[in-house]
Amino acid sequence: MRSSKTEVNAGYGVEIRTDIILGDSKEKLKLLEENSVDLIVTSPPYADQRKNTYGGIRPEKYVEWFLPVSKQLLRVLKPTGTFVLNIKEKVVQGERSTYVMELILEMRKQGWLWTEEFIWHKKNCYPGKWPNRFRDAWERLLQFNKDRKFNMYQDEVMVPTGEWAKTRLKNLSETDMVRDNSKVGSGFGKKIANWVEREKAYPTNVLHLATECNNKNHSAAFPHELPEWFIKLFTKEKDTVLDPFMGSGTTLFVANRMRRNSIGIDIVPEYVNMVRKELLPVELYLFEKEPEYEKVKPKKRS
Prior knowledge:
CATH superfamily of the largest domain: Vaccinia Virus protein VP39
Number of helices: 8
Helix content: 25-40%
Radius of gyration: 23 Å
Low-confidence stretches: 285-296
Mean pLDDT: 82
Order of helices and strands: EEHEHHEEEHEEEHEEEEHEHEH
Distance between the termini: 67 Å
CATH class of the largest domain: Alpha Beta
Shape: globular
Structural class: alpha/beta
Number of strands: 15
């Protein structure tokens, strides 16, 4: 079952398409054209979690379960596109499971390049106490690509330089005025003087975002800021964003607001129906036509 919507933003002349598909991603992804998606952002069910909605997948079966999906994602992603996977290992009998590391290795065998790993620092994580570890305050955001050359718009996610610049750049040393190569022979280097009078800098690979408190009847909704950051970084307007485990539709809502085409797939009918209903008011707001006024010709004076 597939629900497609096409809307036109009259104010900007940008046509935006949103496709919502009910079914198993492993099968429904086959409906999509090869090399048709610019960005994939998703958070699949973690091992042994979301049993009431997705049935739960045992850690030892997780790689086997996910590989048919990642195979299709590799097919539909453009060579210039990016896949961002939000995932985290679970603890089994006091020990971290290895299924995420095993999945990375198997996906590389499929042809994926494991380009980067971002960290989502959950600023408002729940407090807790365990005998052999501390509370979880972060999750993985794994970046995969098909090609080493991919679209990346780094200037779109620049951040203010911060207070450190006022003191660090005030009195520069001789070393700061020239390129200072890494002492470990990595080939990397820095020239501190390049940042004088700059108001913005490139961010780190750690995203400090609060979790979604209002879960919209979903067991693991992530915050709007998470897909928004990656949509800014890896896409432009009218590009296509895919979430093969759509859930409450966060990725679609953000993509729609940012004037990107989007595709969402989910196996749970309640989520699909909820997104369809909630997406309509967003579309009406975004694509509301400007009022037209009747032009009245001035009457000639007699």
